[in-house]
Write a structure and sequence with these properties.
The protein has 5 helices and 25 strands. By secondary structure, it is of the alpha+beta class. It has 3 domains: 113 residues, Beta Barrel (Lipocalin); 92 residues, Quinohemoprotein amine dehydrogenase alpha subunit, domain 2 (Lipocalin); 156 residues, Glutaredoxin. A 9-stranded antiparallel β-sheet has the order 4-3-2-1-9-8-7-6-5, covered by helices on one side. Strands 10-11-12-14-15-16-17-18 form an 8-stranded antiparallel beta barrel. A hairpin with a 2-residue loop joins strand 14 and strand 15. The longest helix has 19 residues. It is globular and about 60 Å long. 37% of the residues are buried.
Length: 404
Amino acid sequence: MKNLIGVLTIILLFSCKSETTSKTLQVGSYRAVIEAQDNKELPFIFEVKSATDIKIFNAEEVIDVTEITYKNDSVFIKFPVFEGYIAAKFEGNNLNGSFIKESLNRIVPFFANYNDDKRFKVKSKPSQNTTGVWETVFSKGIANEEYSAKGVFKQEGDKVTGTFRTTTGDYRYLEGVMDGNEMKLSTFDGAHAFLFTATVTDSTMKGHFYSGNHWKEPFVAKRNETYELAGANDLTFLKDGYDSIEFTFPNSSDQLVSLKDDRFKDKVVIVQIMGSWCPNCLDESKYYSEYYKENKSKGIEIVALAFEYAKTKEKAFNSIDRLQSNIGIDYPILLAQYGSSDKAKAQEKLPMLSHVLSYPTSIFIDKTGKVRKIHTGFNGPATGDKYIEFKTEFEEFVGGLLKE
């Protein structure tokens, strides 16, 4: 409750009139910083094209932001699809404020300096090269928290790009530098703010992963060009005694939708377990949306089950509608849960599953209603070849089901 009051206070402060004319963002580059734990800076770069058009850059990713409003000496920047927004006051051409996610009661200090396009400040020439594959363990030795990942990086000079893949997805487009023997990588997409720092030798890494100012965990890695993660098709499965799934959830018109509906009869169906707040789900939804538009006449249906942390049903559907509108999703998104995105509670809504390990998770159902495969997680465009591999496998598998 205190945090929510803080959010409202911030909004009121930013709405107070302190100038007789409104300021707007200056055309050009800004170096933005979100504060993480340990007094770490989590930086990203955005470019202002006009007062209502911003582009955020993370390696090869470019995010267009057009929901920008002004009031007197303040600017409010709302990101595509996701709930989070920036509220900041102008200090000359610079900005000082907060990154806010109201449903989670999170307020993270934010500032941005105009006419600066250096993500990280480099003090020393790189003494190591991170290019290659890294077998990685996060939270090593910590009970119930340890998990494996695959780091894949490319370094040119002091610039480093790449990502960490886990069994349930990836950590988005990471961009940063090698400063001496210190690697620094970050990404910001409007939902998640990630920072990775590590000390690197020719064969090892040791560092920390920061998410906003609310999460920090250690990781270690070693070079291993042949390392592969466990298969995504073996992590989630049906419990003994089940060969199909059942559910009934409402759409945004408050109509109950079930797999027993005529829409899904005698068709191949993909059930997408997701959330409008989830960047990997966004990547998957973009791909599924394109595939569905091109192939729905062949007898395929996709239905998404949204598990939302928004505190009310109305806010949850607002987020879902925003996602559908932004991407142009033609298949239905049903509200399976609101008020929490807890995976254990999600599994309670689908008790025939062994567990819900990840958002997203996709369940592939044949024309007879039988579950044929469950794919945990999603390797998005940031994973390069792995993303292409996923699309090829997906299209071959679904194509086979359609021919049956």
